[in-house]
Design a protein that fits this description.
single chain; 672 residues; alpha/beta; Rossmann fold; Dihydrodipicolinate Reductase, domain 2; 3 domains; six-stranded parallel β-sheet; 19 helices; 21% strand; globular
């Protein structure tokens, strides 16, 4: 019988480790309480990467774990009936052939009396195949009274058990996952939020650091320093940001512990003295002078020059590494972007600069490479021979709602198309990289961008939303009704653009980017539309196949295809093969994009960050059309709040070869 929800839990605090008594060397890591073969039965997620990819777990040999659980010479486990359950003979483990990974993990008796290894997985309180599992306040372990666990005292003499904090184990996990990067769990890390009083810090950065801390994914000795012009305290930071933490009442003590690691310093962004004061404060923290330092610039671009210079001259660690996270926008056009890049590059090496585009941290955007290069079925189809069009969509159902002043300075093309959608296009169009090394991946993305000609006026439609008199609330207000928007503004709130990748694989295939505010739904996706079936025998009833990667909301991958309509008639009908993450991975919490990316910065992995040459090529494509729209004061097409956008957008898409039948819409299985 499947256990009830109350019987399933996860250990988030401690994992039992085994140390060699004489040297203190780490021998084995084991999350007690979850029989390996029990996890699939109860639906609890065992982290599959660690035990499945290689015969090691967190860099620890499995035979050590066998010794931990069953003794160095294959000890006997007493059954409840008093008989002996002979454990397998491990005496030939070093000299014999390598065992099957599953046998190595569960034991050659099929796992009847064995405990498995894995992170993030426990089951309480129940029995399974004779094992009693109990919970303590901070970790899980097999009941000492259980007859199966009455093992010879020889095991206790062989090894000493200590409780290893989850973050230390995750540090080993990070070493496995980022084997080419240095990540020293024992070192002190200081995360400096420059612009700590702003919206980005309040809504994203502090909540993200809390989630990483709560999940044990920050290094053990991590301190957070806020820096801004406002005269605030840590309590002020907590008050303004805690509502975004999604913390429960049970997290109160841990929240207190998190904020004890926080401090705040006020100062001027342009003043060297303020940054000297900041550096003195950093040095005053435990091991602060030697700590690794991460500077997150949650600031408007107008102060980047002063801040980056002051950090370089006064706040750099002379012993640990230094990394700077820069938020978009990275300039307004090619010229301003180049100036900013040249300035930052004069102060820092490229491997110290992390230009963050949060879309590269989203689950389904990262999934694009796996889908593309990890599935044989897609390889022969992924070209101009089979794909007729690629559509990249970003839609928001709300307008600027009183924040139009900031948006008007940039517009939808700079805000979404030139970065988020273009990055998705690169991941779809790129050739297979030599490896998943950061620069190997980014090299291929740059090749795609270099194959794209600058966007021209005949391949773009821009729009601006107007109020819907029949709408409700904000829907009655148009963009120009926002008091923060300059009167008569021509800034687009909607754009559809068509780009072409001029290489052998994609020649002639339109990459259609469509984005806008105040539209009919919230949606971000990549849609690959395939060509018509040749030799149609169904009297034109077949619609084009589509592969859709839904980024948000309700992450999913589905293939739109034709199947026989159920019933007596022999007619084709549009349907789908559907992988909806909410159904397939019910027990998995997908991390926020910022969680992934900030953890990547700690780990030194730049694969999901924008390199300077990527940025330069992106602006080369969009700068001419941006200047033309502004210079010629081209008026955007009006569209109603809550609509699909201006009709001219659909006309452009149809003109370049995208077929919108309008007869089918994906049904979210979670809402059935």
């Amino acid at each position: 019988m499947r256990p009830s929800t109350g019987e399933v839990a996860r250990s988030r605090e401690h994992i039992v480790a085994t140390l060699e008594p004489e040297s203190g060397r780490l021998l084995a890591v084991c999350c007690h309480g979850c029989p390996w073969r029990f996890a699939p039965f109860c639906g609890v997620s065992v982290l599959p990467r660690l035990p499945a990819l290689r015969p090691r777990v967190c860099g620890v040999g499995r035979w050590f774990t066998s010794d931990l659980l069953f003794g160095p010479e294959g000890m006997r486990l007493q059954s409840p009936a008093g008989g002996a359950a002979q454990a397998p003979d491990w005496t030939k483990r070093r000299g014999g052939a390598i065992r099957d990974p599953d046998v190595a993990c569960t034991g050659q008796d099929g796992g009847q009396n064995r405990l498995g290894i894995g992170l993030d997985s426990c089951v309480i309180p129940l029995r399974h195949r004779g094992l009693s599992l109990v919970q303590t306040t901070d970790f899980f372990y097999p009941s000492a009274e259980d007859p199966y666990m009455q093992v010879s005292s020889k095991m206790a003499a062989a090894h000493e058990q200590v409780h290893l904090s989850r973050s230390e184990v995750c540090g080993m996990m990070r070493k496995e996952l980022f084997s080419e990067q240095e990540f020293h769990q024992s070192q002190t890390h200081i995360f400096i939020v420059v612009g700590a009083s702003g919206d980005l810090a309040k809504k994203k950065i502090y909540p993200t650091l809390w989630w990483l801390y709560n999940d044990g994914l920050l290094p053990e000795d991590t301190y957070i320093v806020g820096f801004a012009r406002s005269k605030l305290t840590v309590q002020d930071i907590r008050k303004q940001s805690e509502s975004y933490f999604k913390a429960s009442a049970e997290d109160a003590d841990k929240l207190d512990s998190f904020f004890k690691r926080n401090s705040y310093i006020s100062g001027q962004y342009s003043g060297a003295a303020s940054f000297q004061n900041l550096n003195q404060h950093i040095n005053s923290l435990p091991n602060g002078a030697k700590a690794n330092r991460l500077f997150y610039l949650a600031l408007p671009p107008s102060v980047y020059h002063d801040v980056t210079r002051n950090i370089r001259e006064t706040c750099m660690s002379s012993v640990g590494w230094n990394r700077v996270i820069v938020e978009k926008p990275f300039g307004k056009d090619l010229e301003s972007s180049n100036r900013l890049s040249e300035h930052i590059s004069s102060l820092y090496k490229e491997n110290q600069i992390y230009r963050i585009d949060h879309y590269l941290g989203k689950e389904m955007v990262q999934n694009l490479m796996i889908l593309r290069f990890g599935n044989r079925i897609f390889s022969p189809l992924w070209s101009r021979d089979h794909i007729s069009a690629v559509i990249l969509t970003f839609k928001e159902p709300f307008g600027t709602q009183g924040r139009g002043g900031y948006f008007d300075e940039f517009g939808i093309i700079r805000d979404v198309m030139q970065n988020h959608l273009l990055q998705m296009m690169c991941l779809i169009a790129m050739e297979k990289p030599v490896s998943t090394n950061s620069d190997d991946v980014r090299d291929e993305k740059v090749k795609v961008l270099k194959s794209v000609a600058p966007l021209t006026l005949d391949n773009i439609v821009v729009g601006q939303y107007i109020g819907d008199p029949e709408g409700q609330g904000d829907a009655q207000q148009g963009y120009l009704d926002d008091r923060t928007v300059p009167k008569g503004s021509l800034t687009p709130t909607f754009a559809t653009a068509v780009l072409y990748v001029q290489n052998e694989r994609w020649d002639g295939v339109p990459f259609i980017m469509r984005c806008g505010k105040a539209l009919n739904e919230r949606k971000a996706e990549a849609r690959l539309q395939f060509r018509d079936v040749p030799g149609d025998i169904f009297q034109s009833q077949c619609k084009r196949n589509e592969l859709v990667i839904r980024v948000q909301p309700n992450e999913a991958v589905y293939t739109k295809m034709m199947t026989k309509k159920p019933g007596m008639f022999f007619n084709p009908e549009e349907s789908e093969l559907d992988l909806t993450y909410g159904n397939r991975y019910q027990d998995v919490k997908l991390p926020d994009a910022y969680e992934r990316l900030i953890l990547d910065v700690f780990c030194g992995n730049q694969m999901h960050f924008v390199r300077s040459d990527e940025l330069r090529e992106a602006w080369r494509i969009f700068t001419p059309i941006l200047h033309q729209l502004e210079r010629e004061k081209i008026k955007p097409h009006p569209y109603k709040y809550g609509s699909r956008g201006p009709p001219e957008s659909d006309e452009l898409m149809q003109k370049v070869g995208f077929h919108y039948a309008g007869t089918y819409k994906w049904v979210n299985p979670n809402k059935i």
